[in-house]
Design brief:
With 177 residues, the protein is of the alpha+beta class. The chain has four helices and seven strands; from the N terminus they run H-E-H-E-E-E-E-E-E-H-H. Strand 4 and strand 5 form a beta hairpin. The termini are far apart. This is Stringent starvation protein B.
């Protein structure tokens, strides 16, 4: 199989994260969600650049899903992340979530769903968690992309060992509700 030097998979995921960025930017500008729209956003709590309270980190050590609907405040969106105020058990919390940390986005009012690969999670866990600026986040993402590219090159040299590929439905990996 030829190697994808352009990395369409990464480009497509970046473009889809851009959809989330655009939607959140519009919500931040107006201060509310139009119509019946509301969002479930799932993100990796261990990802570089994620900032949540220790209490939330203890409750959600790996991933967390937030609901953006009626009660949110101080939504700010940058090129690489968003900040939002939400209440958990009547306690106000500020969350900072890089778009690269998002695993899923769902708007049930129109049945719109996006899911993202987490192939680079292991590499992200190996890196320093004290990332604070957008530039540092961009650098980490670039390093993760480079690691993904080097893995692809290593895999290319491996022998087939006579095994054939197996097609698997993506539905088998989705959570059952």
């Amino acid at each position: 199989m030829p190697q994808d030097h352009i990395r369409y998979d990464i480009l497509a995921q970046d473009a889809l994260r851009g959809v989330i960025r655009k939607v959140l930017t519009e919500v931040a500008a107006t201060g509310y969600l139009p119509g019946d729209h509301h969002f479930f956003i799932t993100f990796m709590t261990e990802a570089p650049g994620v900032r949540i309270s220790t209490a939330l980190k203890d409750r959600y050590p790996e991933q967390m899903t937030i609901v953006v609907q009626h009660q949110f405040w101080d939504l700010k969106v940058t090129e690489s992340l968003f900040e939002i105020g939400l209440s958990f058990s009547d306690k106000p919390e500020k969350l900072v979530v890089p778009f690269a940390a998002i695993r899923g986005f769902y708007d049930p009012s129109v049945n719109f769903e996006l899911e993202f690969d987490t192939v680079m999670e292991e590499a992200a866990n190996d890196m320093d968690d004290d990332i604070t600026s957008d530039e540092e986040i961009a650098q980490v993402v670039e390093e993760l992309i480079d690691k993904g590219n080097s893995r692809s090159e290593e895999d290319e040299g491996k022998e087939d060992n006579g095994k054939s590929a197996e097609v698997v439905s993506l539905d088998s990996f989705r959570k059952k509700n």
